[in-house]
Amino acid sequence: MPYAHITGWGMSVPEPVLTNDDLSKMVDTNDEWIRARTGIRERHIARDNEFPSTLGVNAAIKALQVANLRPTDLDLIICTSSSPEYFFPATACLIQDQLGASKAGAFDLLAACTGFIFAMNMAAQSIRSGSIKNALVVGTETLSRFMNWKDRSTCILFGDGAGAFVLQASDQPGGILSAVMHSDGSGADSLSLPAGGARLPATEATVHDGKHFVHMDGKEVYRFATRVMGHAAHEALDIANLTTDDIQWIIPHQANYRIIESAARYLKMPLDKFVINVERYGNTSTASIPIATVEAIEKGQLKAGDKVVFVGFGAGLTWGALTAEWSGPLPAGRAVHPEQYRRLARVRSLYRRIVRIIEGIIFGRES
Ligand code: UT7
Predict the structure, then answer these.
(1) 166: which DSSP letter?
(2) Is residue 35 within 6 Å of ligand 1 at its C-beta?
């Protein structure tokens, strides 16, 4: 049975930064409160022309570069997002098209902030089964579009960004070692985007009542998160026959510094084994784990051979954990320069436009 290794990684955040002081001019809040309750100092907010697919593609290109793969080498793309570009088509398909990953099946997976763990597990299982060789997992968010910027209990928390991993089959032992996935739909109301779906389709009233924004019972989600994080990490470690002593790094979902502290206490592990960057990005939902991972690699913290636990929680309710032995890029590969991706994307879009014009002329003549 092949092993599923994480061989590429990349992140992309929009440039504009919204600080706590900026927020204090928009709602009744202040830097001290936000830092004390959440650990967040600032977050990045997408510009009008930035979308989950554009951020996701930027992160994916970097991940493919690290893995030395071409987009056409990909068999599968799973995109996970709490703020997808459309209801349908899947954001994964937009990413597939912009990358030119013509051989990849692409679909979205919705498990809110736990999405990246669920998606990594699905990609790893597909590789382990022998049915595919190369997968791309993208977590990408522009949750700022779904924030009520008058609701101080939510708008201070979230940020935009994307992260991507490439997973590849290899005979070398290592890579993804174990995973657990959990859900409890009885807590669905505690964190949701109530309107726009089949239960509450968009109407003037839903817009007027702010039902297209994120709604959250913060205290309830906090209690749930502190209950499940450490436990899920333990479960995944047990399955892999590991203990916390075998682990170099825990990379948790970055929602709140205090939630991460409480997981550290539960696991009886020092906080310096946790990768934490919530202060600079806020909660980027499905993107928070890969963004934290990329930063840990760039800082020289996470190295080949390290054992790591990824652990997350989110709306649904969902939670889960995944253990991996960090491997780094596999030896062989055929990278493409980022400029080549962009040139290819421009050619493809021009080609499609020409085809549409020709179709218009032909159908116009026929009718
Ligand atoms: O990916 C999962 C996403 N969700 C989460 O991770 C959320 C988990 N929950 C939390 O992180 C915390 O519950 C929050 C940070 C959201 C809130 O912290 P808290 O300690 O649970 O505060 P609270 O909701 O109990 O509010 C305490 C007080 C209230 O005032 P009163 O009623 O005591 O007068 C709030 O109105 O703080 C007030 N408050 C604020 N004050 C200043 C709420 N938001 C703010 C704010 N600035 N932004």
Answers:
(1) E
(2) no
Q: What is the residue extent of each domain of the chain?
A: 3-325
**Longest C-alpha distance within the chain, in Å?**
74
At residue 278, what is the residue type?
V
Residue 129, both tokens? 């089964």
Cβ distance 79 to 108 under 8 Å? yes
Phi/psi for 163 (5° steps) reads: -140, 150
Question: What is 3-325's CATH number, 3.40.50.10470, 3.40.47.10, 3.50.50.60, 3.40.800.10?
Answer: 3.40.47.10
* Residue recorded with tokens 């929680």: 313
Is 253 an active-site residue?
yes
Q: Whose CA is nearest to atom 1 of ligand 1?
A: 314
Q: Which of 79, 113, 134, 155 is an active site residue? A: 113
pTM recorded for the entire structure: 0.92
Cβ of 221 below 6 Å from ligand 1: yes
Please name the residue whose Cα sits nearest to atom 44 of ligand 1.
153
At 334, is the pLDDT very low, low, confident or very high (cuts 50, 70, 90)? low
Residue 187 burial (C-beta neighbours within 10 Å; 0-12, 13-18, 19+): middle
Beta bridge partners of 161: 141
What separation in Å is there between the alpha carbon of 145 and the centre of ligand 1? 21
* 196 contacts: CB under 8 Å, gap ≥ 6: 87, 202, 206, 211, 212
Instruction: Name residues whose C-beta falls within 8 Å of residue 229's C-beta, 6 or more positions apart in sequence.
Output: 252, 259, 260, 262, 263, 266, 311, 313, 319
Chain centroid to CA 86: 16
Each residue's pLDDT tens digit, 75-108: 999 999 999 999 999 999 999 999 999 999 999 9
